[in-house]
From TrEMBL:
Pfam families: MFS_1. The chain crosses the membrane at residues 43-68, 89-111, 117-139, 159-177, 183-206, 241-263, 269-292, 304-321, 327-351, 363-389, 395-418. It comes from the Bacteria. InterPro entries: MFS, MFS_dom, MFS_trans_sf, Sugar_transport-like. PROSITE patterns: MFS (PS50850). Gene3D superfamilies: MFS general substrate transporter like domains. Keywords: Membrane, Transmembrane, Transmembrane helix. It comes from Roseimaritima ulvae. GO terms for molecular function: transmembrane transporter activity. This is Major Facilitator Superfamily protein. Residues 235-456 form the Major facilitator superfamily (MFS) profile domain. The keyword Transmembrane helix applies. The keyword Lipoprotein does not apply.
Length: 456
């Protein structure tokens, strides 16, 4: 199998003026992409409930379709070779992702959609989005000069966070307003039209961004599978880390996708309250990232991952304690802090425990395994709801088993050797926003900062 070569393996030569224009266009892409995330896929589960597909379907649509993207990632190098360009592949994915919102808007307008069709549309969305991830990481390395990466990716990340949050609030306000007037489905139609339009603008910025001249097309790929004659075997610590991350994802997804139906159906939250809960977790996660970055620099990524992993253990079970809105709001804030530590810690550990030459290949494998774990966990949770019924007590079992499984996963983490140094930071692209801050994110490999780098 093949992988996309890193930027260092490609010829690069870009005039300064073109570099500046590219950076502005990349910021435009981040802004409009963030807007799409905030008002688009975030509301797929709520839409499933609105069209009457039920609580189990609402959980499945937030997780199972990601497998399509994880699988397509594995074959993306051949598609890039066929298209002859990283940019063409990335722009094609962006346009297809935008197109996925068209049938959703039509379905919302008419008020009817089958579960099979919704899963297919969501699979197209995630296939188009995740499959371009490795290519985008390689491409953006060529676009952004090495000396500007720390400051630029910090700025780009903050911009996407802002637009995602703004769109999340605006979309929630739209749904609250439309539902109070009896036409919530038309509100969803408006959201999906807006999300598709935002992604098209993002695709235009991507199309306008000019990467440096590349090597010939047949030089753009190299084996994804290790060469038996000379490839290193990943260290044991890396294998243990990947096993922990995948197992943890199974138990997180056992309950995670079902918080939306629990809030909207069992607790009867309005769209406004629902979005407020998600927003609290999102904001606390964003603001605590800086703190955890300092901890990682001083104490190591392993410490941050441990603190995050321990913090995640009780979070789902705490939903059993009370249905009081203030209590749940506090849980959301704590969730954001814990998820910030966990995500930053595991991505820093991932990059520190893996040899540089194997990161792209193993990150692709991890993404694939991660999407399988998400689907497996969600289907197990859906099975429990199917057998015992969608009652509050069934949800309590989901939340309790999820916390117990997370605790058991710490046993796998305990055997991992801690790295001897820490990267200062690594920026992440937000791909989806979830309740409890368990967002779908992807690391920007070019943004990794070594300890000796100047602060951004």
């Amino acid at each position: 199998m093949d992988r996309i070569l890193t930027a260092q393996e490609l010829a690069t030569d870009m005039p300064p003026r073109a570099e500046d224009q590219n950076l502005v266009r990349s910021l435009g892409d981040a802004a409009f992409f963030g807007g799409m995330v905030g008002c688009g896929e975030t509301y797929f589960s709520a839409f499933a409930l609105a069209v009457g597909l039920g609580e189990t379907a609402a959980g499945l649509v937030a997780s199972v379709p990601l497998v399509a993207g994880g699988t397509l990632q594995l074959i993306s190098p051949w598609a890039i070779r066929w298209l002859g360009s990283l940019r063409r592949w990335i722009v094609t994915g962006a346009v297809l992702q935008a197109a996925a919102f068209i049938p959703l808007a039509v379905a919302a307008w008419y008020g009817a959609l089958s579960l099979t069709l919704l899963l297919l549309i969501a699979s197209l969305y995630w296939a188009a989005g995740l499959a371009t991830g490795p290519a985008w990481n390689t491409w953006i390395e060529q676009v952004v000069p090495a000396g500007q990466r720390a400051r630029f990716f910090s700025r780009r990340s903050r911009l996407q966070q802002f637009t995602t949050f703004a769109a999340l609030l605006a979309a929630g306000g739209m749904l609250q307003w439309s539902s109070q007037r009896g036409f919530a489905l038309l509100g969803f139609a408006a959201l999906f039209c807006a999300a598709g339009s935002l992604r098209l603008v993002s695709a235009w910025f991507l199309h306008r961004t000019n990467a440096p001249p590349l090597a010939p097309t047949n030089m753009l790929v190299a084996p994804l599978l290790p060469d038996a004659s000379g490839a290193q075997t990943p260290p044991t610590s890396a294998k243990r880390l990947l096993a922990y991350l995948v197992l943890m994802q199974v138990f997180v997804q056992f309950s995670g996708p079902f918080f939306v139906p629990y809030m909207l159906e069992r607790l009867d939250f309005s769209y406004g309250t629902f979005v407020a809960m998600i927003s609290l977790a999102f904001v606390s996660k964003v603001f605590s990232m800086t703190f955890w970055g300092r901890v990682a620099e001083q104490r190591g990524a392993g410490k941050v991952l441990w603190l995050g992993g321990i913090g995640l253990v009780p979070l789902s079970a705490l939903w059993i304690v009370s249905t009081n809105v203030v209590w749940l709001a506090v849980i959301q804030i704590v969730s954001g802090v814990a998820w910030a530590a966990y995500e930053l810690g595991f991505f820093l550990m991932f990059f520190e425990t893996l040899p540089a030459g194997q990161r792209t290949r193993l990150l692709t494998y991890y993404n694939f395994a991660n999407t399988l774990a998400m689907a497996a966990g969600a289907m197990a949770g859906a099975g429990l709801l199917y057998v015992f019924g969608c009652h509050s007590e069934s949800y309590y079992w989901l939340f309790g088993v999820s916390s117990a499984g997370r605790l058991l996963c710490l046993g796998v983490l305990s055997g991992i050797a801690l790295p001897t140094h820490s990267l200062r930071a690594i920026r992440m692209r937000i791909l989806a926003v979830r309740p409890g801050a368990s967002s779908v994110v992807s690391p920007v490999t070019a943004s990794a900062e070594e300890p000796a780098d100047a602060p951004s």
